[in-house]
From TrEMBL:
Belongs to the DegT/DnrJ/EryC1 family. The lineage of its organism: Bacteria, Pseudomonadati, Planctomycetota, Candidatus Brocadiia, Candidatus Brocadiales. Keywords: Pyridoxal phosphate. This is Pyridoxal phosphate-dependent protein. CDD domains: AHBA_syn. It comes from Candidatus Brocadia sinica JPN1.
Length: 365
């Protein structure tokens, strides 16, 4: 089976570096908010071309903490997409704010600006842009829209590690960017982890307070915070993996190019190609098929793993059926959810495996 992810096939050199990183933490005797976290925060901020990174427990907490750091909460609306991991909307709700769902562009599966404009109200405080599947597109449009509406531009970068637009990295366009370091991410650890990146010293300091029980200093709780700290072990692993990031990302792009060049089945449609090589990092390579479920089974029967991201849009989830949305409906999100299928596109894939995926898809009838 050609797997969606294959951690057991990672380079032996990387594995030894991770073991050494873990051993270093164990021998240090310091496991929470120490030098490893500080070193990774500095390294990640530098790679993102931004002033501050604040390590937190996971990507969902990064969004919640970011919203709370901007005092976005009860009575405030945040516009986002129904085509995302549930954590995006759950974080808005946990912050006390109200999510509002806009439709997507059927070509990219990213938010549609016209739909976002229809969702604006006097209560709108922010738009949370999800760089879905690893792609960053049309940021000039989003910057102008948020400026004109006088709302915060926020970025969910859980799938878009270091994807860039006109030389700027995902998460650096708005007030903050929220990253996840879940194991399957382009930069992932061996468990949960996340970070907020920002150019605002005030926001970064507030995020540090909120992640650690709301402590302004030890035992002095200036407000009610969370327990959401990136720990030393995961920070050390992430630092080790960061040294392999460019190599792994380049490999994802090679596989994606092979798919764009090789998949020629009229029953299978490809998502829009990126405008340049830096704007998509292919956390996921997604194809579309009107007979998605039959293709899903066919691929598995022929040794190709696959997943659906995401089969149930947010507004069809039980707790979210009453969430306000574009009055024209979310028809493109619903259509995408019924047709989308993610195929293997990870750094450990061989050329032979990529060619096998192409061959199997092209033989689907």
């Amino acid at each position: 089976m050609i797997l969606m992810n294959n951690f057991q096939a990672e380079p032996a050199e990387l594995i030894q570096q991770e073991i050494a990183a873990v051993e270093k933490v164990i021998k240090s005797g310091w496991y929470i908010l120490g030098n490893e976290v500080r070193n990774f925060e500095s390294a990640w901020a530098s790679r993102c071309g931004i002033s501050y990174a604040v390590g937190v427990g996971n990507g969902m907490d990064a969004i919640e903490i970011g919203l709370r750091a901007l005092n976005i909460g009860p009575g405030d609306e945040v516009i986002t997409t129904p085509m995302t991991a549930f954590a995006t909307v759950l974080a808005i709700i946990r912050a006390g704010a109200t999510p509002v769902l806009a439709d997507i562009d059927p070509i990219t599966a990213l938010l549609d600006p016209a739909s976002v404009e229809r969702c604006l109200s006097s209560h709108t405080r922010a738009m949370l842009l999800v760089h879905l599947y690893g792609q960053v597109r049309n940021m000039d449009t989003w910057i102008a829209l948020c400026k004109h509406a006088d709302i915060h531009l926020l970025e969910d970068c859980a799938q878009s590690h270091l994807a860039s637009w006109k030389g700027k990295v995902a998460g650096s366009f708005g007030d903050w960017g929220a990253y996840s370091f879940y194991p399957t991410k382009n930069l992932g650890t061996m468990g949960d982890g996340g970070a907020i990146i920002t150019n605002s010293e005030e926001l970064a300091n507030q995020a540090r307070v909120l992640r650690n029980y709301g402590q302004s200093q030890r035992y002095h709780h200036s407000e009610l915070g969370l327990n959401s700290r990136l720990d030393e072990m995961h920070a050390a692993i992430l630092t080790a993996r960061l040294g392999w990031f460019d190599f792994f990302t380049a490999r994802r792009k090679e596989i994606a190019k092979a798919y764009f060049d090789g998949i020629k089945n009229p029953l299978v449609h490809l998502m829009a190609e990126p405008v340049d090589s830096e704007s998509h990092v292919y956390h996921l390579f997604v194809i579309l098929c009107d007979e998605r479920d039959r293709l899903n089974n066919y691929l598995r029967e022929h040794g190709v793993d696959n997943l659906i991201h995401y089969p149930i849009p947010v507004h069809h989830q039980v707790p979210c059926k009453s969430i306000r949305r574009d009055l024209k409906g979310l028809i493109h999100a619903e259509a995408h959810a019924a047709r989308c299928l993610s195929i293997p596109c990870h750094p450990q894939m061989s050329d032979g495996e990529a060619n096998k995926v192409i061959e199997v898809i092209n033989e689907f009838k």
